[in-house]
Amino acid sequence: FCTFRLTDRLYGIEVLHVREISPYLPTTPVPQAPPAVHGLVNLRSRIYLALDLRPLLGLSVVNITDQSRLIILKPEIGQDVGILIERGGDIAHVNAEQIEKRSGAGDSSSDGASLIAGVCKLESELMIIVDPMRIAQAVNRLFNRVPR
């Protein structure tokens, strides 16, 4: 898992879904976009949609710092999509028995709860596992709610 922090909580996303991790780059705001859309980023002449997971997870918005990063997801998850994180972590190798899958995953009406695939017990803390496919689905639902 590629680990990262949001409001001092440890999160992880399967490294198979991560294309790269980039330092934070200035973003261009998207007018009338949902709060989870931080903006557009130009990374090596390619435009990416930078998502802020905090609103989707029901967390308060935190200011960008020099430790902020952008996790670029692989195209099969979302074409040209990145996740804005407060600070990156390490790569965590875990065994399947360390993971407790979320019961009833995907059937919650709460966007934040539906993003969580499970929890992993690490030595010093718990890692909340985020499902990138559910992120893409949540963003699609958000854009479908935007007035035209």
Helix-strand blueprint:
Blueprint: E1 2-6, E2 9-13, E3 18-23, E4 37-43, E5 46-52, H1 53-56, E6 69-73, E7 81-85, E8 87-91, E9 99-101, H2 111-115, E10 116-121, E11 126-130, H3 132-145
Parallel strand pairs: 2-11, 5-7
Antiparallel strand pairs: 1-2, 1-8, 3-6, 4-5, 6-7, 9-10, 10-11
Structure, explained:
With 148 residues, the protein is α+β, with helices and mostly antiparallel strands. It is 16% helix and 40% strand. It contains three helices and eleven strands, in the order βββββαββββαββα. It has a six-stranded mixed beta sheet. A five-stranded mixed beta sheet has the order 3-6-7-5-4. β1 (2-6) and β2 form a beta hairpin. The termini are far apart.
Indicate the low-confidence ranges by residue numbers: 105-109
Largest pleated sheet? 6 strands, mixed
> Proportion of β residues?
35-45%
N/C terminus separation: 38 Å
Average pLDDT, rounded to a whole number, is 85
Summarize it:
This protein is α+β, with helices and mostly antiparallel strands and 148 residues long.
Which key features would you list for this structure?
single chain, 148 residues, alpha+beta, six-stranded mixed β-sheet, five-stranded mixed β-sheet, 11 strands
